[in-house]
Amino acid sequence: MSKPRITRSRARLAAAQALYQMEFGGEDAGDVVSEFRSHRLGFEQDAAQGETLADADEKLFADIVNGVVARQVEIDRALAGALSAGWPLERIDATLRALFRAAAYELVARPDVPARVVLDEYIRVADAFFGSDEVKFANGVLNTLARRVRPDEFAAAPR
What domain count does the chain have? Predict the structure, then answer.
C-alpha cells in the first residue's frame, strides 16, 4: 500500500472509532477530533493487534467525523434504505453503525473518492473489528448503499 493510502486508511479507522466514542460518551465532534489529534493520531495504539493510528490523514479524519455529524439525518436515511426490512439502524451493533455512518458520509458527500475505494476501505475496517459474518453483512449493506447513492459508478460494470 502506498503511504497516502495508508494514511487515509488509518484516518477511516480513527473516524469509525471516534464516531463510536461520540455515541457512547456524549461528546461533540470538536472535542473528539481534538482528543484524537492530541492523543491518538500520530501514535502507535496497539502494535500487537496490528492497530495503529500513526500517520493518519488528520484532514480526512476530521472531515469524516464532522461530516457525519452535520449530515447525520441524511446519512441515517440512506442507511435505513440499504438495510433489510425489520433491521432499523438502531438494532445494528454500535461499532458497525459508526463504520456504516463513516462510509455513508464518504459515499454521499465525497464524490472525489470512488465508491469502490470507499467499499474496500470500510470492509477492511470491518475486518479489523469483526469476524466473517459481520464483515459479510457490512459488505452487503455497503454495496447496496453504494449502488443506490452512486448508480453511475456501477452502471457500466458487470456484477
Answer: 1
